[in-house]
Sequence to fold (757 residues):
Amino acid sequence: MDFFHSFIGSFAKLFLKYLRSCVAELVSCVGWNTAEELYSCSDDHQIVKWNLLTSETSQIVKLPDDIYPIDLHWFPKSLGIKKQTQAESFVLTSSDGKFHLISKLGRVEKSVEAHCGAVLAGRWNYEGTALVTVGEDGQIKIWSKTGMLRSTLAQQGTPVYSVAWGPDSEKVLYTAGKQLIIKPLQPNAKVLQWKAHDGIILKVDWNSVNDLILSAGEDCKYKVWDSYGRPLYSSQPHEHPITSVAWAPDGELFAVGSFHTLRLCDKTGWSYALEKPNTGSIFNITWSIDGTQIAGACGNGHVVFAHVVEQRWEWKDFQVTLTKRRTMQVRNVLNDAVDLLEFRDRVIKASLNYAHLVVSTSLQCYVFSTKNWNTPLIFDLKEGTVSLILQAERHFLLVDGGGIYLYSYDGRFLSSPKFPGMRTDILNAQTVSLSNDTIAIKDKADEKIIFLFEASTGKPLGDGKLLSHKNEILEIALDQKGLTNDRKIAFIDKNRDLCITSVKRFGKEEQIIKLGTMVHTLAWSDTCNILCGLQDTRFTVWYYPNTVYVDRDILPKTLYERDASEFSKNPHIVSFVGNQVTIRRADGSLIHISISPYPAILHEYVSSSKWEDAVRLCRFVKEQTMWACLAAMAVANRDMTTAEIAYAAIGEIDKVQYINSIKNLPSKESKMAHILMFSGNIQEAEMVLLQAGLVYQAIQININLYNWERYVSLSEQGCSAYMHLKLLCYKAGMLTFPDYTLLEGQKHFIILYYLHT
Fold:
């Protein structure tokens, strides 16, 4: 197995554009109304509107001289909706202890006395049903959307500089000097508090998609935390205090602002790009609703705008780069052929997989085939800003503020799955998975549940039952090949256990089986059902995960494992294409690992029922892993001749003997039942025998397994007295009745007991 490193330092860049405010006073806060319209507030008491399409600025309102604005936050809008029916307004906090509800036209709808001293921050929750404000007086207050005080959540002796809502709007994160505190809205609920920085914390942000927390402090560092307060990343000290941080809406990137510094970072902490604009301190950063550009409020009176460019997508021989906001470059690395793709509007999202490039702009969706870059399929988007694109071999999925939409690669709309309480703005690639026939979505309201839908119709899969696990689920992934009835879903739960189960759910509850422990990231191959994951300090490949349903004893023999220490801390699997796995390390570098191509060839032979070719391949490769995979595949497909050869090759003699005994059984039903027993499916084996009228064999199975309760149940359904006596003899620890080696008294006792009962 080979691997090599590459560093993508310019995976994404910031294209900067500076615009000076009307008066060269400190700009304190900025906020996007739409993807092309920004409002800024400054110490000259003006609220200025910036139109990026026309590059025009206009003064909306001039505030009274005693009002110095500090923070601005627009009333939340559904992601990507083109037409807003709700009144467009924002909250503005100020140094006079008030917050102001101001309309888009600049009319001050309401001013509310909120704090003693300056109101340092104000934030709407994600539904727009509540507002939280914090101030110099150390109080955290919750208000209704009309400005009525609901509660004082907390009070402390130091100023609270920044605040953020939790993803479910049930918790509030705020600063307390060097500490961070997460306080639930419910009274008497547990409060989480930890020391986060060595200096006063100036800014925090909490992303609703990835559930991660950002913090920035006077110790000149920015840090990434999970929602339990565990540190995930800490930057090196900068020259100056970090004055602003902000998550991109999709949670994949975040921006950091400091004195003459603007940095673009990955969600894991490493830096994509560093710019040194002449801006003074950047006090406030905000992302546009489509996540393609940021704006910063600067200490020298500038408003800085930056666009994210140089994003890169790779698949097999093709590399696609977003060179400008409306231009992509496609490069074939085999022949160095280059194509330029021009778009009418700015590019929002893109995905390259399964020989297709899917690009969403602000108004349209483009579908390119890798065979022909000149004639894309184009259709208009239903809602607007796309937040997620997922691809499968036959179709692709778009997620926007209005819903989830499935399209074929020829642009035909297929389905739009829905479920109660669906919030599309918090879905990402870890919580949604797509295969040729199934859509899986993790529920946000109850994170132990996965919704399963038919891809073609958008209706619940099978009998409509949800997939439920005992623990919260973190990441899900559907396998990509095989029949619908054999479709499997793998997921990682909060204990970092990797589990697998069938998505087919008719009547009986499908068993959830644990494949591994301490798994941090996983991916299915796009060409066959091979699963890989990073397990603590090991990189593990499950060449045939379905082995757990066939013969769990040989599962360890179907794995490939290698040391993963060179991947450093918190690596992430980016893709699994063919036999190449791409892993991104915590420092941003990529590691490409090539696994053995033979298991994929074996999968292909078995799916085509080429058993002789499969045996020849295993004999050629001469690896125990291949033989173990073939043994499990053969049993799963009821080919006991091949199974016998494979089990013999790995030294499982007892199983070879059992397979031989199966082959000698007289009826097809008996053989099927014993194959099911071999795989551990006792109930299914019994059902096969009972349906064939082989009641005695069904009873014999339960006797051999010492399953007396089930034996009695079957006996009472019409079995002979002889079988009852046989049971009693077994329970008494004696030989089978009527064996005359039994003591006479014991036989009499058994007969009398039977007659009595």
Remarks:
- The longest strand covers residues 372-380.
- Residues 60 and 106 are 5 Å apart (CA to CA).
- Residues 1-10, 79-86, 734-757 have pLDDT under 50 and may be disordered.
- DSSP finds twelve helices and 56 strands in the chain.
